[in-house]
Write a structure and sequence with these properties.
InterPro entries: CheY-like_superfamily, LytR-like, LytTR_DNA-bd_dom, Sig_transdc_resp-reg_receiver. This is LytTR family DNA-binding domain-containing protein. Keywords: DNA-binding, Phosphoprotein. The mean pLDDT is about 95. Strand 3, helix 3 and strand 4 form a beta-alpha-beta unit. Helix content is about 35%, strand content about 30%. The chain has a five-stranded parallel beta sheet. Helix 2 runs parallel beside helix 3. The protein is built from seven helices and 15 strands. It is elongated. It has two domains: about 120 residues, Rossmann fold (3-Layer(aba) Sandwich); about 90 residues, OB fold (Dihydrolipoamide Acetyltransferase, E2P) (Beta Barrel), CATH 2.40.50.1020. The longest helix has 19 residues. The two termini are about 30 Å apart.
């Protein structure tokens, strides 16, 4: 799922924009509405990660360009679309790397055509990541950085190239969501990223960072088959 933030201090116009966005289907998304853009920034400070911003410029208390600069501090590459009443800030939009600049009232056909493309790219990028929630807040982790996921009692440890993340959860949930992302359940306590499997010998899987993972006997056949399939697809 991707998260779209709409910031416009005019509640009526915000609702109109939301209604248009909701005409987009086939992509799973959630819309977050803010009549005060500072509430959007507060949500980010609390760990929220957005995949697209739709932002007015002329707001009573805030300038949309200034808000965009703040958003860029935490979301440097996230698509940012200005929807405003005047063209005078169009050049300033380039300073914050705005993806599009639309004038009100919206040309719905053009807007939806462009937004579909932008959200499709955001959705594809989103599928390369997983977002977890733990004591540190929300964290987005690149799937290709994960070596393996380990279940310990009621907690989950996600082992990545740079650090480990701990959270409350069930490994079965990760197994289901990562089924088509080259992850395989090799043991009741381990879910392994096939990208990093260096060797399988008897009941031991060795990863290319040297770590060894226990392989269950009843999961051995499927693990070997999936590894061979992965290698064939990526040669």
């Amino acid at each position: 799922m991707i998260h779209i933030a709409i910031c416009d201090d005019n509640a009526s116009e915000l609702k109109q924009i939301k209604t248009i966005v909701e005409k987009i289907s086939l992509i799973e998304y959630e819309i977050h509405e803010y009549t005060d853009p500072n509430e959007c920034i507060q949500a980010i400070e609390q760990g929220m990660i957005f995949d697209c911003f739709l932002l007015d410029i002329l707001m009573n208390k805030d300038n949309g360009i200034d808000i965009a600069q703040k958003l860029r501090e935490t979301h440097p590459d996230t698509p940012l679309i200005f929807i405003t009443a005047t063209p005078e800030f169009a050049l300033a939009g380039y300073e914050v790397n705005a993806a599009r600049y639309y004038l009100k009232p919206l040309d719905e056909v053009c807007f939806l055509r462009d937004l579909k493309k932008i959200l499709a790219l955001a959705y594809a990028k989103n599928n390369d990541y997983m977002t977890i929630s733990n004591a540190s807040g929300l964290t987005r982790i690149r799937l290709s950085d994960i070596y393996y996921i380990e279940s310990m009692l009621r907690t989950i440890q996600i082992h990545t190239k740079d650090k480990n993340y701990t959270m409350v959860g069930k490994i079965s949930k990760f197994e289901e969501s990562l089924r088509h992302q080259h992850f395989i359940r090799v043991h009741k306590s381990f879910l392994v990223n096939l990208r990093y499997v260096q060797n399988i010998f008897k009941d031991t899987i060795t990863l290319d960072n040297g770590e060894q993972i226990l392989l269950s006997k009843h999961r051995s056949k499927e693990t070997h088959e999936q590894l061979v399939k992965y290698i064939q697809e990526h040669v």
